[in-house]
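Weekly sync notes, structure subgroup
Attendees: PM, AL, DS (notes)

Item 1: joint prediction request from the bench team. They want all two components modeled as one assembly rather than separately. Inputs as received:
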Amino acid sequence: MTAASAVTGEYARQHLIDPEVCIRCNTCEATCPINAITHDSRNYIVRFDVCNSCGLCIAPCPTGAIDNWRNVPKATPYTPDEQLAWDALPANIELDVVPGEGVPSEVRALTEAATAGQGGPASPPWSASHPCVNLYSIAKPAIATVTGNYRLTGESASADIRHIVLDFGTLAFPVLEGQTLGIIPAGQQDDGRPHGVRLYSVASPRDGERPGHNNVALTIKRVMEDHAGQPVRGVGSNYMCDRAVGDKVSVVGPYGASYLMPNHAGASIMMICTGTGSAPMRAMTERRRRRMALNEGGKLMLFFGARRQDELPYFGPLMKLPKDFIDINLAFSRETGQAKTYVQDLIRARGDDVARLLQDDDCYIYLCGLKDMEAGVLEAFRDVCAGHGLDWDAVKPELLARSRLHIETY
Amino acid sequence: MSIDYNQTIPNNVDLATDRSLQRALEQWQPGFIDWWRELGPVGSQGHEVYLRTAVSVDPGGWAHFDYVKMPEYRWGIFLNPPAADPKIHFGEHKGQPVWNEVPGEHRANLRRIIVAQGDTEPASVEQQRHLGLTAPSQYDLRNLYQVNVEEGRHLWAMVYLLHRHFGRDGREEADAMLHRHAGDPNNPRILGAFNEKTPDWLSLYMFTYFTDRDGKFQLSALAESGFDPLARTTKFMLTEEAHHMFVGESGVSRTIQRTCEVMKASGVDAADKLRALGVIDLETIQRYLNFHYSVTIDLFGADQSSNAATFYSAGLKGRYGETKLDDDHVLKDATYPILEVANGRIAEKQVSALSSINERLRDDYIRDSVAGVERWNRVIEKSGIPFRLQVPHKAFNRKIGSFAAARVSPDGRIVSEAEWNAGVGNWLPSDEDRAFVASLMGRVVEPGKFANWIAPPAVGINRQPASFEYVRFG
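Output from the run, pasted for the record:
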C-alpha cells in the first residue's frame, strides 16, 4: 500500500511525532521497515510520502511521542522541513468545524473519548456524502418539537429504551446516518449553571424518519444507574424520555464527519452494536432498505447484542427484514435458559464470512456501544484473522488507513 | 529444579535444546533470584506492576504489557536477528566475516568487555533499591520498576554470553557479578559511578538521563563488534535502554516544569522561598546536573587509552555509528583532537585517533546529552523565566583522565584550590541541597496523584492515562 491509498476525500491523516515528548532515542527510526522516519539534530519526523501507517513503530516507542495524527489537506501535508523546525505539534484541523463557529468543548471531548479506539476521529469512507456540521450552537440552538415518544423495550424489561422523533418544522437540520446531534436539557445544574450538551446518534436516515418530512429519530435509554450499577439518574436521558408530544427541545449540531456510511454501489456494511448503539445501525439499514429496489449490491451484516430479547430495541421491525437483505446475528447475554452469548462470540462463530468481509475493500465496519464491547470485538477480529491466515496487526492499520473501520464507544 | 525454558525464559537462542547452557543457567538462576529478593527493590515482592516484557525481538513482541509480580518477571534472552552475510566493518579484520564463536586471541579482552558491561546492570538495581519507598506517584514507581527489571534482563543477556561462549571462567565471572555490590567497600562494583548512592528521585532522573546514556553509547559501540553474538545482544538491549533515558529526561523535565509553574504562580524566584513552597529551585537542579554529568563522563575512561585502541583494531568494540562514519575504519594514520592542560590553560591537541577512541565516544555522548538539556531549557523558556541550564565543561570535576589532577570550574577555567573551595558549593550539590531534596521525598500511592514537586507526565505508559493503576500494591 502506498501513502496515496491511505487518503480519502480531501483530507488525509498524517502521522507525526510530538517533539515535546520525543527523547530522540532512535527506536522508531531503527524499527521502521521502510525508512519512513528520519531526523536531524533537533527533531525526529515521519515522511508523509513514505509512511504506510503500518503501526510497527508505535509499541516500541518508550515515550508515546510517536502516536500522533493530524488531519491535513491531502495536497499539502506538513513537509519534512516544517516538521524539523517544530517545537510543538500544530493543532489538529477539526474536519467538522465551520469557520467562525467552534464545536463546543464538551462535544469535542465526548467525540475524542468515543473514538479513542481508532486513534481519534478518522476520515469518512471515500463515497460518504458531504455532511453538514455545527449549524446550531449552544448560543443559538435549533428548537424542535417532539412528535413521537415510544417505548421500544418490553413492558417487563428493566431497561426503558425509547424511540423519540423530533420535527424541525421549517428550520433546516440536515443529517446523515451516523451523525450525532446534541440536546440541551432545560433547567439548571445544582450550582446554577445550565446543563451541558448530551449527544445522541441519529437513528433515522437522511431523508427523515418519515420520508420527505423534516424530522429525525433518536434511540434513548433512560439511565437509572452508572456503568458500575450505582444508582444515577441521567439528566439528559430522563429529560428526553419524559418529553410529551408537542414539547419543545433545544438541539445543537449536527456533529460528525467521520462515522458516515459509504454510498457507492456494491459497498458492504458490517455493523456491530449493543443497546442504543444500534441507533446509527438502524439509520444505515433504513437508508439501504429504502433503496433496495435499486439493486445496488453489497451485503449488510449485523451483530447486535442485548441482555434479553425484550431489551433489544427495534427487534420486531428487524425480524421483518428479508434474509437476503441483511444477515442478522443476535447475542443475548442474560436470556433465561440460554448460555450467555456476546457479539464477539457470534463474530467468531461467523469467522468465515467475517474474514471475507475484512478482506473486502468495499466493506466498511462500524462499532457502536459500550467501551467494554470494543476490546472483546477487536480480540474476536484478531482470532478470526489468526484462523484464516491473516495477521490482525497488519489488517487493522490497513482498515484504519482506508477508513474502513469506525468505532464509537462510550 | 527444572525450568520450562520457553515459558519462564523467553528466548530466541534455542535454549530448550541447548543442554549445557541449560545446566549453566540452572545453576545461576537461583542465585539471581536470591540476589533480586535480597538486593532488588525493597518491599516490592508482592506488588503487581504494569510492566513491559519482551517476549520476542520483532516490534510486535518486545513490548508486551501486563501486570506482573517482579520476582516472576520473565527475564528473557534475545539476540537481534543476524544480518545477511555479516562482515566486520572496522579494524584490522575489516571485510572479514563476523565471528560467531570467540577467537582464542581475543578471548580475554572480550570477556573483560562483557564483564565490565554486565557488572553495571545489577549495580544500578542495587543503587536504586530504596527509591520505591519514596516514589512521587504510581506512574513513577512503575517506571522505576521497569528500569529495574530491564537492568536485570541486561544482566541475563551478558550472563548468557559468558555461559554460552566462555566456559568455566565465564561461569565464574557470572557468579562474581552477583557477589560484588554497589558501594560495598570490600567487594565494590567495577566502575566508580556504580558505587555512588542514588538517594532521591532527582538523583534517579539524573542517573537515568546521564548514566544510562553512557550505557547507550557503550552498547552502541559494542553493537558494532565483530563478535556477532555480542553485537546482536547489545542491539536489542538498546531498545530497552531508550525507556531508561526517557524516565530520566521526562523526570527532570517534569521537575523543572513544576518549579516553573510555582515560580510563575507565586512570582517568587529566590531559591529559599521556592524551597519553602516545596519545589526544587533551578540552581539546585543545575548542581545535580553538574554532578551526574561529570561523574558519568569519567565512565568513558582515560582520554588516551592503548586498551581502547587494541579493542578497536581487533574489531571488538567500534565507534558510535561506525558504519555511518566516512573514513577508512582502520584509523592507522588518523588523528583526533583532545584537550589537555598546558601552561595553566586548557588547550586542544591532535593525537592518534586510535588511542583516543574513548575520547571520541565521550564527545559523541556529550553532543547527545546537550541536546536533551536544550529540551529542558525549552520548558523554562516557555514559562518565560530567564534561566538556562547547561552542561559543565568537559574538564570539570573529573577523576579520570588528563584532568584528574586539575581544578576546573564549570565554565572551563583552571582555578586554584582556594577558588575551587570557594566555588564548589555553587557547582556541586551540597549536603544541605541533598538534605532538602530528601525532605521532599514522600510516598504518593494514589493513582493519578503526584507529589507537589513534580508535574504529571504529558502521556501515560502504553496509551494509558496518567491516573491508571500502574501498581497494585500487594
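Discussion: The radius of gyration of chain B is 23 Å.
Action: AL to compare against the crosslinking data before next sync.
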